[in-house]
Amino acid sequence: MIEREWRPDFRLDIPGVLGPLRRGRGDPSWRTEGEGAAIWRTSTTPDGPATVRLSRRTDGTVVAKGWGPGATWELDGLPALLGADDRPDEFVAHHPLIADAARRRPGMRFGATRRVWDQLVPAVLEQKVTGTEARRSWRELCRRFADPAPGPAEMPRGMRIPPTPAQIRSIPDWEWHRAGVDSARRRAILGAAAVAHRLEAAVELGGEEGRILLRRLPGIGVWTAAEVAQRAWGDPDAVSFGDFHIPTVVGWALVGRPLDDAGMLEVLEPYRPQRQRAVRYVELSGFRRPRFGPRFSPRDFRAL
């Protein structure tokens, strides 16, 4: 075990910053301890698997403990993971709802895992399906094909490392079906696994250049690239265009009517280069759009 301490010089909401990395309550790569007193998360790194436990003292000091071959790499990136490289002070709110959310959530920042692969697989699993379907597939792939997480005896039970590219490539076709993953998403993930080492360059490029690199892969579009960028390099401008819900929520919150992607692009233009931060504030504001129809029902690809 290795340990690092870091005291930020800004307001920090650790669960809020790290929350987007969690893929549902049953995510095998994520656990919380007590009432959120500590967060455990696992990852792949260039040096191998890692498990990290994050907690905070009353004076604001963050205490990080790491296990596994990749622990040093993970802890070296602790400030970036918790948003030290983010620039929320440069954000200007142009709408009262966003301004109020920014005032009430001063600890909201974009953290950077510095790792594309761990974010890409679950993002592809979330393409064009409900969150329930995607989270179930992620759990099954991690539990059945990934390695147990390194750590101490007191570590929460059942934690797994995200599956590596090699492990993904070894999964037989029928096992993808059993995990509820259709052929289109399977092909996209397998294509990414074949060139996974090259995709990490997107973190160094950052911004639109990094997203363009990801979109060169078949099956990786604007939405998926944005979802990865928000997490891997903390991109505050990477809006998830193509989402089933976001344009409608942003439209009702900011202009009082539903929008499509083109309309949302226009409404968010004043927030460039921090458009996704504006979207995040809308999500954190507590605003709920009107409900007019039935909810989108999950499908079970295993029964098809």
Distance between the termini: 46 Å
Q: What integer is the average pLDDT?
A: 94
Reading side by side through the largest sheet, how are the strands ordered?
1-5-4-3-2
The helix content, as a percent range, equals: 40-55%
By CATH, the topology of the domain at 117-232 is: Endonuclease III, domain 1
Structural class: alpha+beta
- Kindly report the name of the CATH homologous superfamily of the domain at 117-232: Hypothetical protein, domain 2
Number of helices: 16
Order of helices and strands: EHEEEEHHHHHHHHHHHHHHH
The shape is globular
CATH-defined architecture of the domain at 117-232: Orthogonal Bundle
* Major sheet size, sense and barrel closure: 5 strands, antiparallel
Poorly predicted residue ranges? none
Please report the first level of CATH classification, the CATH class of the domain at 117-232.
Answer: Mainly Alpha
DSSP strand (E) fraction?
Answer: 5-15%
Total beta-strand segments:
5
**Radius of gyration using CA atoms only:** 19 Å
Describe this structure in words.
Among the domains are: 2-89, TATA-Binding Protein; 117-232, Endonuclease III, domain 1. 42% of the residues lie in helices and 9% in strands. It is built from 16 helices and 5 strands. Strand 3 (38-43) and strand 4 form a beta hairpin. The termini are far apart. Keywords: DNA damage, DNA repair. This is DNA-3-methyladenine glycosylase.
What's the structural blueprint in terms of helices and strands?
Layout: E1 2-6, H1 14-18, E2 30-33, E3 38-43, E4 50-56, E5 62-67, H2 71-76, H3 78-81, H4 96-104, H5 117-125, H6 131-145, H7 165-169, H8 173-178, H9 183-194, H10 196-199, H11 201-205, H12 207-215, H13 222-232, H14 246-255, H15 261-268, H16 275-284
Antiparallel strand pairs: 1-5, 2-3, 3-4, 4-5
Helix pairs in contact: 4-16, 5-9, 5-13, 12-13, 14-15
InterPro entries: Alkylbase_DNA_Glycosylase/TA (IPR051912), DNA_glycosylase (IPR011257)
Protein name: DNA-3-methyladenine glycosylase
Keywords: DNA damage, DNA repair
